[in-house]
Amino acid sequence: MVSVLILIAITFFFKRDEFSRLVFIFFAAINIVSLSLERLVFREALRYMRRKGYNLRHAVIAGAGENAELLIRRLEGHPEVGIKIEGVIGVDPAHSGGKVAGIKVIGQCDRIGEVIRERNIDIVFIALPWEEHSMLVTVLKNIGDETVDIKVIPAIFEFMTMRGGVEEFDGLPILNIQNSPLYGWNTIVKRAVDVIVSVAAIALLFPLMILIAALIKLTSPGPVLYRQERMGIGGDTFEMLKFRSMRTDAEKESGAVWARKDDPRRTALGSFLRRTSLDELPQLFNVLKGDMSIVGPRPERPVFIQGFRKDIPKYMLRHTMKAGITGWAQVNGWRGDTDINKRIEHDLYYIENWSLMLDMKILLLTIWKGLINRNAY
């Protein structure tokens, strides 16, 4: 696009008017395609050369723990980056002569400067385990003023969850252990989509909701809507709305329990509503209010959460996003009385990989296969 602007500027400056607007459009299209193809060919050629052993940078890894093993596996899985591991530098004499993920330990940290010079090393990766992290200063001192790139895989990496990464503030590097994907424009875009979709869905489905409300009122005594406390973003609670599908005294004797197959507490109409997920329609108003999102982890009752967070690692991380009417776990079949660990695994995957496109995919899958489910009872 810059080259197109330059061409326009040159023709204007020299008062050349023999070019039509169509010429500029053709020039822009050909330019973009050609530049893209050039970069693609160059990148693929470079990857091919590196896979064949050319254009490589030679590296050593200081550390013989799990982080070092993980780094070796990642580098071996991506030969196109062109980094060849020449060996591992141990920081414990017990590592001498051994191997880490198939790579030989070629020396100790007191000899790392000699190894760099002897093997023409370009990069030093420091991947010390947590218990050896105090050796970082020693490793750096022994590298001295060798002209190599030094990259550190922090030991705290193993504790990083939910979009952990590195950012910089005024020259100060900051390591994020866990971070919500929704900030800045992401929050605004997701909320805008929630409002647009919920308003459109309410307008479209309002006659159906009126019909369901009338049928509930005619077929069983009690209120049309059922309000239940659920936990949302940040651990805050809210009242989630549903069409009532059970008797009004459903939990009088049993207390808070999950719905089960052929649950005798259901009304005749409620059985149909739960099986078709139509009892969830009032949650569109929860979305419009801002308590929920169209897509997100399904909210759970606080009384159950107290037990889940004790037994399931990282359970509470699902509350870093708004609860949703539908979610990644639900469209993959993990809803109702199914494996809670699998549901949490899918919820965390969704949060870690959130994007507007993923939300659209989940919405389409919900319409395609998520409304009627064998576990919805």
Q: Helix tally?
A: 12
Helix content: 40-55%
**Arithmetic mean pLDDT:** 85
Q: How far apart lie the N and C ends? A: 56 Å
Q: How many independent structural domains?
A: 3
Low-pLDDT runs: none
Account of the 3D structure:
The protein is of the alpha/beta class and 377 residues long. The chain folds into three domains: 2-51; 57-159, 3-Layer(aba) Sandwich (Rossmann fold), CATH 3.40.50; 185-370, no CATH class. 43% of the residues lie in helices and 16% in strands. It is built from twelve helices and twelve strands. A six-stranded mixed beta sheet has the order 3-4-2-1-5-6, with helices on both faces. Strands 7-8 form a two-stranded antiparallel ribbon. The chain has a two-stranded antiparallel sheet with strand order 9-10. Helix 9 links the parallel strand 11 and strand 12. The radius of gyration is 29 Å and the shape is flat.
Protein traits:
flat, 12 helices, 3 domains, Rossmann fold, 43% helix, alpha/beta, 377 residues, six-stranded mixed β-sheet
Q: What is this entry, summarized?
A:
The protein has 377 residues and is of the alpha/beta class. It has helices at 2-13, 21-51, 66-77, 112-118, 136-143, 185-219, 268-276, 283-289, 302-311, 328-331, 340-352, 356-370; strands spanning 57-62, 83-90, 99-100, 103-108, 123-126, 149-152, 165-169, 172-176, 225-231, 237-243, 293-295, 324-326. The chain has a 6-stranded mixed beta sheet with strand order 3-4-2-1-5-6, sandwiched between helices.
